[in-house]
Amino acid sequence: MASEFTYVLPVEETGWRVDGETSTAFRWDYDEARASLLGLYDKGKRQQWNAAERIDWSQDLDPENPVEIDDRVISIFGSDIWNRMTVKEHANLRRHSQAWQFSQFLHGEQGALVCSAKIVQQAPDLDAKFFAATQVMDEARHVEAFSRLLREKFELAYPITPPLKSLLDAVVRDPRWDMTYLGMQVLIEGLALAAFQLFRDDAKNPLAKSVNSFVMQDEARHVAFGRLALRDYYPQLSVAERREREEFVIESCHHLRDRFLADELWEAVGLPKAECLAIARDSERLRNFRVRLFSRIVPMIRDIGLMGPKVERAFADMGVLAFASIDLGALLERDAAVAAGFDASQSR
């Protein structure tokens, strides 16, 4: 089924082109390389997989609750609007809200595909170009998997949210290589990992769980790449350069937090948009969910050395500063282990 027939908006209304300047860095010294990045590159080569074969696409989704997740993740759950809805309307909202979420995963992965190709072009070091080349293939595979899940199983998709679009626009447009890393590898990928984790750990549908698990295995490498590259580079920045990047982190985190209000969803399912958005903004469940989403970003910002006083205050105001003490390396190792567990269960 073509995507035009599954989008809640016509595809031609959602198109978008970003014009900007991007420098190209050639490196003629082929001997110098960091062992840590070459190790990630080697792992990236060994962990390539085929989305058409590794995922069991014969599995179906429940049309009334596709990924089989608790209704309490829906921001208007328990409200007067929710309580007035029929069983059929609840089922329709579940399908649409989950399709909306997986659509944002899909669009974010296309953004990562573009940005990783940009990193190959921009990166000043050859070892970074090597790894980014494996990431290009990873991201293409992720776009393929999420697109197939939405097209064949949900038969429904949503356009990119304005907050995510705005952040991607800034990342793609900026000509500096480290801003591509910071925007994509740290912020967008970090938030995506936390969102993927929710659907991997809380959803009960094995198809949806496996897609998220396998994608997370790749994303763990990508986040480790950004962490290594920026941790080496950011101590070299001037005070003004550092301040600019800290401001970018704060602004971007607000954009990412706001993307989960799902403005596009409510009218599509016939609900009053303004009332639903008001409920969502006041929802303790959504607030807790949005806080959880920063469990990967905050320790990353700490690790790369951008946790200045202003960033720390911003994270404290957002209620996410406690995540700074998380062992990010342990989380990334668990992501790889969970994916391996899915492989073992499917081979039995």
Topology:
Layout: H1 35-46, H2 51-54, H3 80-84, H4 87-122, H5 126-154, H6 162-173, H7 177-202, H8 206-233, H9 239-258, H10 263-268, H11 273-282, H12 284-292, H13 297-303, H14 309-318, H15 328-347
Helix pairs in contact: 1-5, 1-8, 4-5, 4-6, 4-7, 5-8, 6-7, 6-9, 7-8, 7-9, 8-15, 9-14
List the main descriptive attributes of the protein structure presented here.
mainly alpha, Ribonucleotide Reductase, subunit A, 348 residues, 15 helices
Give a brief outline of the structure.
The chain has helices spanning about 35-45, 50-55, 80-85, 85-120, 125-155, 160-175, 175-200, 205-235, 240-260, 265-270, 275-280, 285-290, 295-305, 310-320, 330-345. The protein is mainly α.
Structure description:
- With 348 residues, this protein is mostly helical.
- It has one domain (58-347): Orthogonal Bundle (Ribonucleotide Reductase, subunit A).
- 67% of the residues lie in helices and 0% in strands.
- It has 15 helices and no strands.
- The chain is globular and about 65 Å long.
Write the CATH architecture name: Orthogonal Bundle
The helix-strand sequence is HHHHHHHHHHHHHHH
Distance between the termini: 32 Å
Report the CATH C-level class.
Mainly Alpha
Tell me the number of structural domains: 1
User: Quick one: how many beta strands?
Assistant: 0
Q: Structural class of the secondary structure composition?
A: mainly alpha
- Overall shape: globular
Helical stretch tally: 15
Percent strand equals under 5%
Characterize the main sheet. Answer: none
Average pLDDT, all residues:
88
Radius of gyration: 20 Å
| CATH superfamily heading | Ribonucleotide Reductase, subunit A
CATH topology title: Ribonucleotide Reductase, subunit A
Relative helix content: 55-70%
User: What ranges have pLDDT less than 50 throughout 5 or more consecutive residues?
Assistant: 1-5
